[in-house]
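Collaborator request, handled under Task 6.
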Amino acid sequence: MLPIIPEEPAQWAERAVDPCTVLALPTVKAVLAATTAPRPVRPRECEVPTKIAPYPPASVQVGAALDHPSRAARAPVTIGHNPGQRGYLWWNKPDRGGTGKCELALPLSATRALTITTPLPQNSPPQDSPASACALAVQVATAALTGFLRPESLTRPGAERQLRRTSACELLHAAIPGTGLPFTPDAATSQDPDHCNAHSPSHARMQLAFTAGDPVKLARERPGEHRGASIVPLPEATGVPVTEAKRVASSDQCDLSWANQDSESTVWSVSVLHTARGGQSGDPCANATTLATALRQRLATAPQQPLPPAPPTLGIPADRPDEQHDPSCQLDPIAVPTGCGPPDRKVNRPSDLNALQNALTTDQAPDHLCRLLRGALGAQAETEVAHVPAPGQPDARNCSAGRADRSMVATLTAGTGQLSAYLCSKAKSITVGNRAALDCTQEDKVTQQRLHITLDPNSKRGVLNLTVAFRLPRGIAGELPEKGSEAADYGRQAAAIAEALVKEVGTA
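Structure tokens returned to the collaborator:
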């Protein structure tokens, strides 16, 4: 049984760690060759330009969400030694004329991380792996490890007292009930602590966001950059005087933003964006003003929750688990962890096809499917196998296997019926080995090869459903080509796996 991973260190870091202090560490400044002092972007995010590349700037965010799909899509890395810190790399390859950037997530708990984003250094040769493209991010993380060993050194006393002690979703959950507005906020554990959405039954939306700067001052100083904006008063409320806000409005949308003096050195912009649908949720600006007043009152009068003691260290050692379920569930980014696990149960080969069909209707079906799939992929380099239930179907009887870099993942299920065109709308009849089969691959989605193969060629009973998904190697963002010679190769690879699968089934 995997140990429980405490959330308290991440909760403390989200409220106390100053990302600008991380970027200002002497060891980090030396690695980045920073040209100026770090600049706050949001309460939990800070950036700094570097001499290494003009754009984008290097940045640090504290409290970013890190869930199972995020881990499965990223390339694992170890920061430091003995045993080092666990991390995950995500390389956003540059578009045409772009520079590209790398994001390194250092888990603080099972659900939250500190992320470091760095540009690709100028004049770098073409990169083909997250490890090479993200070398700078790894160097920054290594330089910041001294702070992870002394978490209190990463705080800044008194800074961001209000907005750093609460997340945007927590603030919406506290403010909306007293307004009478028919909106339900996202869960308090949403993806971004500095941003939250709330929705109404009529599908209207409200959005709360924290950014740096005084929006009213900027609108007055740079009117050309704020066309359509007007300065309006926000009404007085308990504990808060009348204040000015920048407003940008249309017939079905209203955006209000105002300054929140959260510390002696930083002014944050708090903005409420209300988007209606067909006027079903009332006047957008009236609703936005109502919520803005409730938020200001909450920020001014809510008691400050004391911070818990700082944890001894931050981060999760590389030799310890950072998820609450088996790491083999990472094989498929979209699979839910419930019921997922390694195929550690050994099953005997059925005596004939009839015995195999019967076995595929029992609780041992995933083990038999994994045995077949493992055999079919035996020629594939560095394959991994795991029971992975289909999304929303935790008890599905299937198995997934794929290359270690996740560039190919095959999923096998079994049905008891006969091969029929009902399996897909545009089926192409083919033969795999000595068995009739259907190719249900969509022409505009060739990275998802779908084949349905008759299990028993004599009785024509039973169907093996094989899906072979191709994607960029783990840790690289982007899309594979759906046309051209590369696309044609997906079909050839899937056909080879299907042929090997039929041989593995044989007569049993």
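The cover message to the collaborator said: "The radius of gyration is 27 Å. Residues 387-394 have pLDDT under 50 and may be disordered. Please let us know whether this matches your experimental observations."
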